[in-house]
Amino acid sequence: xxxFVPRDAAARAVGADKVAxxxxxxxxxxxxxxxxxxxxxxxxxxxxxxxxxATPDGRIAFGPVAPRDAGSLVTxxxxxTHPLCLGRPEEIPxxxxxxxxxxxxxxxxxxLSLDDYRAYGGWRGLERAxxxxxxxxxxxxxxxxxxxxxxxxxxxxVKWKTVADTAADQKYIVCNADEGDxxxxxxxxxxEGDPFLLIEGMAIAGFAVGAGKGYxxxxxxxxxxxxxxxxxxxxxxxxxxxxxxxxxxxxYVCGEETSLLESLEGKRGQVRAKPPLPAHKGLFGKxxxxxxxxxxxxxxxxxxxxxxxxxxxxxxxxxxTMPIQLAGNVRYGGLxxxxxxLTLGEIVDDIGGGTQSGRPARAVQVGGPLGAYFPRAxxxxxxxxxxxxxxxxxxxxxxxxxxxxxxxxxxxxxxxxEFCAIESCGKCTPCRIGSTRGVETMDKIMRGxxxxxxxxxxxxxxxxxxxxSLCALGGFxxxxxMSAIKHFPEDFIRxxxxxxxx
Length: 502
Description:
Elements lengths: L1 E5 L2 H5 L2 H15 L4 E5 L11 E5 L2 E5 L7 H6 L9 E3 L5 H4 L17 H6 L4 H9 L1 H11 L11 H9 L7 E6 L8 H8 L1 H15 L3 E6 L4 H13 L6 E6 L9 H8 L23 E5 H13 L1 H5 L2 E2 L2 E2 L1 E8 L5 E6 L4 H8 L9 E6 L6 E3 L9 H6 L8 E6 L4 H15 L5 H18 L4 H18 L3 H5 L1 H10 L15
Parallel strand pairs: 1-2, 6-7, 6-9, 7-8, 12-16
Antiparallel strand pairs: 1-3, 3-4, 4-5, 10-11, 12-13, 14-15, 14-16
């Protein structure tokens, strides 16, 4: 009997290791031979730990499973009549509605099994790229319409061609896996659940632009992902392309590409002025492709199935799929990979099932801690780069954080400014000083101290941050602040608090 138990950090956090141990112990007591396979997660986090059992009719899922459930599951030979039986995982509505391309193997394969990876379509993209040649591989990526999934949305093919056309004795591929946005976990899921996919994507990128070495920059808060990725690199059969895993030091600003490059070079993570662009002068002064993990991990399927297959999905200039990550006060939190075009309301109310608290959803923040807050009046916004930008919002890395009607939006605006002040690299004055002055001004507003005058000052500060900062950390902080003020003005009008007695 083959039983699949996730080793993904999210599943382990709610007891997956204990569940696996309990099943092994119970099977030993009953004299039943079993084979435990530790997989990644399928991303249905409200059902974790979700285990699966191989049957002649395909896998059958059970969840959420606790160690105390091992006895009844093993005794009943994981019978479909068990109260925890979920049926075939691909028939669970949350999964059935998805278009899984980048995450097709997550939760299905043993992440470190080369046999599993090849059996489920691995290496087809790299093999086709080599058969096409570097120039045509670049054309495929360009025609697919793939854009950077880290938040900027820059066309991947254009970035690669710039590096390919830049003469140099050494070029690099850098994977940005410094996933620091609140409510995001897609990078971690792939690192832990399908690491060879990233290796294949980086190898294709290296082949296309003429780079012989790559670096994977992973945030230090992901120790499981670091271990899995390092082992995958050791096992990798790819020849002619060297990969090294590097671990960040916990700085949010190192998610910005030039700060990341500074950190990789052993320097303090601070933003570089542009130009020159990393594509011309990046890591160690050499032409560098620096892409988000999801961008690179999507490339193998584009090459394997053809650019047209991928480009047929999505809307407008937003082609293909996006791993939408539902978090916060939401009933069905998890990863939902779908083509661009779903409305924010569909994502929150239909797919996410509304709030976990049962109270009305009041605000949704998309794009991490620097993303705008959208009220219910904007829930008709399609999940699309241009549609969000038209309403002063960001898609970012695809994180969707839901808040119910108990949220205080003045506190959320203050948090954004405080976050910027704490995480600023300190290089530019607008971000370093403006964010700190912003926190002080928000404190005055929340005390009821001259709210109109101080709101005007906050608006002026945000304009300075937006147009004067060197990078998106300071430049995007105005999005959550100004959206909170614009859409929830009632939270910023407060009675004046009397001064504390001496």
